[in-house]
Design goal:
CATH topology of the largest domain: Jelly Rolls
Largest sheet: 4 strands, antiparallel
Number of strands: 11
CATH architecture of the largest domain: Sandwich
Strand content: 15-25%
Number of helices: 9
CATH class of the largest domain: Mainly Beta
């Protein structure tokens, strides 16, 4: 399936009138990335933004003390780098393909033309609000247990409410959430004692995701 055909099935392009849809799709350029390749790097001046068409992208922010913050994963339908492009600012994180990805790239001029379409303007405003809300909620997780629970739920392989696995060592989890390994180990033991997770070598199995979501409240 071509990029144009794929985009025509995705929101908000599928909601546009045919003439507007054709005009919008002309602004998209296809980008294909192999696993592990960076879409953009933190600090680079934003020149483009992307709509993820297929695959998964991981966001990582680097702190001044050289620690990192995991910003979660983007899935098809998510916009990447939109705020930075609109604000003419540097990208706020590295965006890395976790698997082979196809993206629709839009230049600053192209986004300007999309914003002239009422349907696109409303949709992109909603996307910006959604991303702001999600990021704000993540950074509100100030306690290590909150950050640990959020990380486990974000990276679990299973569906919400069901068992899932997080294939990370405790050192990797500690680095991702900005805590020490000892802190991670202590909280994992507590969660295991409560019957919410099972801790193994290099893997944490979520036993009850529904209860885990409320465990740090």
């Amino acid at each position: 399936m071509s990029l144009t055909e794929s985009l025509a099935r995705m929101a908000p392009f599928d909601r546009l009138e045919p003439q507007e849809r054709r005009a919008a799709l002309r602004e998209a350029a296809e980008v294909s990335l192999r696993t592990g390749r960076a879409i953009c790097c933190q600090g680079d001046r934003a020149e483009r933004c992307w709509l993820l068409v297929s695959g998964r992208v991981r966001g990582v922010m680097y702190r001044s003390d050289e620690t990192t913050v995991e910003l979660g994963r983007s899935t098809p339908g998510d916009w990447l780098g939109l705020a930075e492009l609109l604000l003419n600012s540097p990208y706020l994180s590295d965006l890395v393909a976790e698997e082979h990805c196809t993206l629709a790239a839009f230049s600053r001029t192209g986004i300007g033309r999309l914003l002239e379409l009422a349907g696109m303007r409303t949709f992109l405003l909603h996307e910006m609000a959604k991303r702001y809300y999600t990021m704000h909620a993540r950074f509100e997780l100030v306690q290590p247990l909150d950050r640990l629970v959020h990380f486990l739920l974000e990276h679990a392989s299973g569906d919400t409410g069901q068992a899932g696995e997080v294939a990370c060592t405790q050192e990797e989890i500690a680095e991702a959430i900005g805590a020490t390994r000892e802190t991670v180990n202590r909280h994992l033991q507590r969660l295991q004692d409560d019957g919410l997770v099972k801790v193994g070598r290099g893997v944490v199995t979520i036993v009850d995701a529904a209860r885990l979501q409320t465990s740090s409240v």
